[in-house]
Every structure is written in structure tokens, then in C-alpha cells.
Amino acid sequence: MLALAQGLTRAGHEVAFATAADFCPHIERTGFEAFPAGLALAHQMEEARRRYPEQDGLVAMERFEQFVPRMLGGVAAPARAADLVPLVRSWKPELLVHDETEFAGPIAAAVAGIPWADQSVGILRPRAMARLAGETLAPLAERYGVDVGPFGGMYRYLYIDVAPPSLQSAEIAEIDVAHQVQNATMDPGAEGEALPDWVRQLPPDRPVVYVSLGTVFNAKARDVFAAVLEGLRSEPVTAILTIGTDNDPDDFGAQPDHVHIERFIPQSLLLPYCDAVVNQGGTAILPILAHGLPLLILPQGANQFHNAEACVAAGVGRRLLPGEVTPEAVRGGVGALLHDPGLRDAARRVQRELAEMPGPERGVELLERLAAERRPLVRSTIE
Prior knowledge:
Pfam families: EryCIII-like_C, EryCIII-like_N. 43% of the residues lie in helices and 12% in strands. By secondary structure, it is of the alpha/beta class. The chain has 2 domains: 2-182 and 358-382, Rossmann fold, CATH 3.40.50.2000; 197-355, Rossmann fold, CATH 3.40.50.2000. Strands 9-8-7-10-11-12 form a 6-stranded parallel β-sheet, sandwiched between helices. Strands 3-4-5-6 form a 4-stranded parallel β-sheet. A two-stranded parallel sheet has the order 1-2. Helix 7 links the parallel strand 7 (208-212) and strand 8. The longest helix has 32 residues, at 60-91. The radius of gyration is 21 Å and the shape is globular.
């Protein structure tokens, strides 16, 4: 959401975020005001497992499609709404933008009598998930005396679609308030950090492979990182692994000079130096593809299995499911990224698609229109 928020600020609007208290410092480092609201992710997942124990038997996409909507609508939304409803009343925004995993936003907006917009996080999630979340959310909406529709508030006024056509679900055609706005090309340094000096001094004769498992699932992925390290240690590449703040680079032992392990490096600054990426398949796939880089996706949870499937179908990468991640498989997958011209050509095709999509300034225009007109922005009426 950062690219859109920055665009709104440039246009003279006041912007603030509401999120779990432990994430507020990350928001504040980007220069925006942040209000604490709702549960931390770990507490949210713990409570959801307690409340929906039957979901423990589900894995991969089945777990994502059935457990996640119940967690978001039944656990996350009520806790966040308790903080968000009075916050919206006191801060008095003219418009609320929520991401598509967040269902308290529409409740709070409806209570305040203001319109809301859905910020997509990538490829459209199956609409059946939004319907299940809506069913789970219904008692909360009734408690607050509002009606946010059958999809938990989704697709009511405006759906900001950030996915390029080659990756997007065919279901997007059913959402008449969907409008393309790409957010994959943020300003360098937007993450509030600097690039380590050694990156600019990498040897030019070795392709650079960047490895990251995101910011949520990396804490329990030590074995995955270890397999990647073993697979790439003897390869003629420069391997850069970012393992997250919950892991310690020293735990992986001494590494050869061409292997670098860091807790964090700003992706927006690092990608221009890279030739290929090993990634978990979260929202980061869009900025990676905006640089024309092919992907080896190691999905760990959430929407990553859907994203991996879409990337394979679009020809921009390879996928290794959790039981398939071995040093040999990683070595073969990275080799394909570096030497299969079809993968790179497909990644560059998606790069062109993203470059042709309207940027955050289009999102600002849509939000300004929604705030002024306070009615659904149906594609056929404004394009």
C-alpha cells in the first residue's frame, strides 16, 4: 500500500495507517502516522487455530482457501474493529482504503458512513474465499448495524487491481469495480533503509541470485534456507540470502566469499543488481517481475501456493513445493532461471505488462473520485 500512500501525499492528501501495534514502527519509518488496531499476527493465528481446530488437517491451497477466510473474518476483524470503529469516528477520514485481507475496514467505514476501497495484494484471491469471509463476518456486521455485502465488503465501491494480465485470475472479469493500478515500481529506498556497500562491489563475472522467504514465514524456514545454501554453495553464482530478524546468520556457519547472509536488505534497492530470485511467492513477486527477473518459488503458506501456480502457468518461473525442496532441486531450479531463455523472456513480457499499467497517480485519481461521488466506480462508466 506504500506506493499509493506516497501518491496520495504527493497530491496533498493526509494519510495514516491502522495496523497491529507491533507493526506500527515499520509504518512510521516510511514517514506515515500509524495507529495501533487489532491483534498481532502471531496472536491472531494462535486464536484462529484454537477457534477452528478442524482446520489443522488442511494443507497448502486447501488450508489457504478454507482456514484463512475464517481467521480473517472471525478472529482478525472483530479485534481490529473494536479499535478501528472509534478511531475512524475520531480521526474523521473521508475515505478508507483496506487491503483485501482486512475485513474490519469496511465495517468501520460503513459505521462512519464513508465509502471504502479494496487494495489488492496481488493476484485476485478466489471469490469463494471472500464469500466465506463474508459469511464469517456477518455476525460482526449485524452487531454494528451495517451491511457490507456478501463478500465482507469486498468489491463494493472500488477494487484496485495490481496484478498484470498474464498472472491475473479470470474471475477479475466478474468484478465491475476493478481498475488496474500497478504498485510494483516503488521509489528506491522507499523501505526506509540503505543498501550495504559490498553489494555495489560484487564481481561482474558471477550472476547474482537473491533468496528471500518474506517477512512472515522465514522464522520457521531454517531448513529451507539450509537446503538453498547447500544447493548454491558450489555453484558459480553470487548468492545473497535475507533470512529475517528472527534468524541469525551465524547459525548457518561460515560461508564462501560468494555467499552473503543478511537479516534484511531493502528489496527495492537490491533487485537492480540481481539476475534471478528464489522467493516464497508472496506479494514480492510483482516488484521482482517488474525488474524482468525469473523466479524459483518455494511456497510456505497463505496465498503463495496460488501465486506459484500462476507464475508457473505464465512461464515466468519454477516451483518447488515444501516436500520437494532439496539442494539438488534448488540447484536445478536456479540453473533453469539462469540458462532457460524462455523463463527470462516470459518474465520480461510481464515486466512490460507492469510498465504499461497505470501507476499510483491513477489510484489517486480513482480515490479522489470515490471520495467526491461516494458511489461504486464501475469500469464502463468511467473508462
